From TrEMBL, chains A, B:
CDD domains: HTH_HMRTR. Keywords: DNA-binding. Pfam families: MerR_1. SUPFAM superfamilies: Putative DNA-binding domain. Residues 1-70 form the HTH merR-type domain. PROSITE patterns: HTH_MERR_1, HTH_MERR_2. The keyword DNA-binding applies. This is Zinc-responsive transcriptional regulator.
Length: 157, 157
DNA sequence: ATAAACCTTAGAGCCTACTCCAAGGTCAAG
DNA sequence: CTTGACCTTGGAGTAGGCTCTAAGGTTTAT
């Protein structure tokens, strides 16, 4: 039996977070004291850990809600259903990774094209790349940068 | 000279988005018609393209605001300042990628551990992994899954 | 002249996951 | 019996980027 602050400390979350989870139907304390304090059991703690593990692999709270309700009614669901959720999330994560890798590549080439020196940004190749209506930017400026050409890929949009 | 809808179509954004950018100080039309319609010039269009290119490499609107004000006052900024912003963003993007790769790995091992079959999820290894208080899950169940052991890494939190 | 397509504004709503606040009640120690 | 740490509630605020609505004015084509 834990009070809200105890369970929060135990699982390294804030008490506010537990109230938030309760408000959103993810985790309710099994009972209350006479004075209204929340009382959590070990089963509640286990449920919280389920939530935190699901969060740690990237599920949103509403997806976790779904997973929890499946977990409580396993016999009416198939492995395929659960695996489907995991695979869908996997695909979403991979799509996001792809987008970020795109950002990374573009940022890296912007960074590489810039001398990074202490002098005026009047010919900064990063600003030029962002300004230019063509996607191709010549970088050949006056304070010590090496010559280079960088491409800002429009398809990353 | 463009009306809001024309510029929006030209740059494949919504008119609402342009009004939103205006409200947030990113892009204001150079003038208005007598009846109050927004009128955008080519320079405004160029500024919008700057914004969209910066978005395409991962900058937030408030960062883009900063980039725009640097761009308008280049001589008072150094390349180092601009490159610093790019490198900071790059680091943030890389951190996010690392987190998502973590998610990906965990999700992949959950997926691999699950038979994905049409039968009851009562022994579903994914649910077991999320339930289990240990981080290690034996997967050895009754409907056709191959034996395996999957690890749900707590450090990915 | 009128209908369609466009424009204006202020302001609300959405999504995610908290986080914080105020005003007050409860509990254990000294 | 008071202090301090804990708990309660409802509600607002944050970030980020739109998106939509209502109620009305303007332009353009027929």
């Amino acid at each position: 039996m834990y009070r809200i602050g105890e369970l929060a400390d135990l699982c390294e979350v804030k008490a506010d977070t537990l109230r938030f989870y309760e408000k959103h139907g993810l985790l309710s304390p099994s009972s209350r004291t006479d004075s209204g304090y929340r009382v959590y059991t070990d089963a509640d703690a286990a449920r919280l850990r389920f939530i935190l593990r699901a969060k740690a692999v990237g599920f949103t709270l509403s997806e976790i809600s779904e997973l929890l309700s499946i977990d409580l009614d396993k016999s009416n669901w198939a492995c395929a259903d659960v695996k489907g959720m995991v695979d869908l999330k996997l695909a979403q994560v991979q799509a996001k990774i792809a987008e970020l890798l795109h950002f990374q590549t573009s940022l890296q080439s912007l960074s590489d094209a810039c001398c990074g020196g202490p002098r005026s940004a009047e010919h900064c190749s990063i600003l030029e790349a962002l300004e230019s209506s063509t996607e191709r930017v010549r970088v050949e400026h006056d304070h010590g940068a090496t010559d280079c050409t960088t491409t800002l890929d429009k398809s990353g949009n």
